[in-house]
Amino acid sequence: MGTLSLLMLGSLLGTPPEPQPVLPKGLELRWSGSYTEATYRPGVRAFRGYDVELFLYVIDSNDTRAEVALFSRIFAKPDPRSKEPPPGVVRIELARVDKSGAISRIFSPYDTDAPKETRPWPLVPLQGLPIYEAGVILELPDSLRAGTSWIKKEEGRPDITWRVGVGEAVGGVPAVSITGIQETPNFLKGPSRPGEWSRRETAHFLAGQMIALKLERTIEHRDPGSDEFAFRSQLKLEQTKKVTYSGRLHDHRKSEALYAAAFTAELDRLLALGGRGGNKGYLALIKKIENYTTEHIAGEYTPYREASVAVRRKANAAAEGKIPTVIAEESAPILSLGRPLPEVTFVDLTAGPSYKLSRLQGKPVLLAYYQPSTGTAADVLSLCQTFLKSSDKTGLKVIPLAIGEIRDALKQKAELKLDFPLYDGVATYKTHGLESTPVLILLDSEGIIRYIANGWNDLVKKEIQEQLEKLTKSASGLPR
């Protein structure tokens, strides 16, 4: 009896067949779709749309697990008024998938400096492009029936509850629907607390398969004290290609994926140095890529050559001193103690001088993100003024970053009679992974995050003062 007949019989009996992993070596799958994100915060109204392609290629497999390449292409929607190609990002990663659908991150054998052991696959990003997308692979329990539910734990997040729903057609073929819901405890319970969010996704599978035909995911955020959504993103993917390659065609794809993954990992390590290693490493990487692509002409006809080309382009830019922001994994949030803060440029709201965060190294820095329209704005600005008055003694550099309308920020500055510059937080808050305001971030003289305050209370000033005193003692060689 065929798969379709089994599915129809299972639907009639109310017990869909149990999915079985089928990942033959050389299988290539492609999904096409879109990613959109909308911001609704006061003074920050924005909508962005992207075209998304995701490739999965099975490099090797046996009866217990498969090693695959996941290649993402995410590009802004084309602007009909522009002759320039739309900006975008491509990234390739390697993964190991076991027979239940559990996925872990692995590294290329051609990357001699890579870890030898597997690593957890990055969590779904709550904000930002889905560059580590693997939602089309779902870890399933041993038995699936209509109405079956199970819970999956994620480190540092609420549990996600999955449930098997009624079947529906995808591309004219009956499929099993599985929906997952994950949200913070107070997301729908009155005024939101800081960092409240919800994630809901639905995947559609053919019976007997662990790879989704279709995936839809919605993530929503709420700001503190608000009943309205502040941010919403939606990812939609549908499988559009399924081909199995063998012989030399498989060998070319395997080689391209493994080498592209090795080049990507090497570039990540160089970028993590923030340019402190000079351009020697970048030039060596560029040479490796040029040698490989020259010697493997056939790889030009595979989708994965684009990943190596993108790495070479970024390495060229970095060698010229144009260091891009390091891509942050959700398993290691951007705002984490002990991590460096990504590079940004601070733009004065009154057309004063602009400068990069890296120029402030050698001094402690306090970044104060706030929204002029909120009740805590005056408190944040008052705190900035207090620390600025003592900056001659502490060496602290204070950067107030307004998220909202420029005229509102400048009007408030005049009303409070402030004599220090304000900077454009709209241009930087997303790079720093903000999900709500106010947020205060204290950096040490090396640009490492030493303190984070999400939200406002009467203890923030005291806590920053204590951390600043520790940094001052450390810099002077006194015991902490």
Q: What profile does the largest beta sheet have?
A: 13 strands, antiparallel
The helix count comes to 8
List low-confidence stretches: 1-13, 325-332, 476-480
Order of SSEs: HEEEEEEEEEEEEEHHHEEEHHEHEEEH
Report the structural category.
Answer: alpha+beta
Number of strands: 20
Percent helix, as a range, is 10-25%
The shape is globular
The average pLDDT value, as a whole number, equals 84
How many domains make up the 3D coordinates? 3
The level 1 CATH classification of the largest domain is Mainly Beta
Under CATH, the topology of the largest domain is which? Lipovitellin-phosvitin complex, beta-sheet shell regions
> What is the CA-atom radius of gyration, in angstroms?
25 Å
Distance between the termini: 73 Å
Give the DSSP E fraction (strand runs of 2 or more residues). Answer: 25-35%
What CATH architecture of the largest domain do you see? Answer: Roll
Q: How do the helices and strands line up, and which of them pair or pack?
A:
Layout lengths: L2 H11 L13 E15 L2 E18 L3 E12 L11 E11 L4 E4 L12 E2 L28 E4 L7 E5 L3 E3 L2 E11 L12 E10 L8 E9 L6 E16 L2 H26 L7 H16 L9 H15 L25 E2 L8 E2 L8 E6 L6 H13 L1 H4 L2 E6 L3 H10 L7 E2 L14 E5 L5 E6 L5 H17 L4
Parallel strand pairs: 16-17, 17-18
Antiparallel strand pairs: 1-2, 1-13, 2-3, 3-4, 4-5, 5-6, 7-8, 8-10, 9-10, 10-11, 11-12, 12-13, 14-15, 16-19, 19-20
Helix pairs in contact: 2-3, 2-4, 3-4
Summarize the structure.
By secondary structure, this protein is an alpha+beta fold. Helices cover 23% and strands 31% of the residues. It folds into three domains: 3-244, Lipovitellin-phosvitin complex, beta-sheet shell regions; 247-319, no CATH class; 345-476, Glutaredoxin.
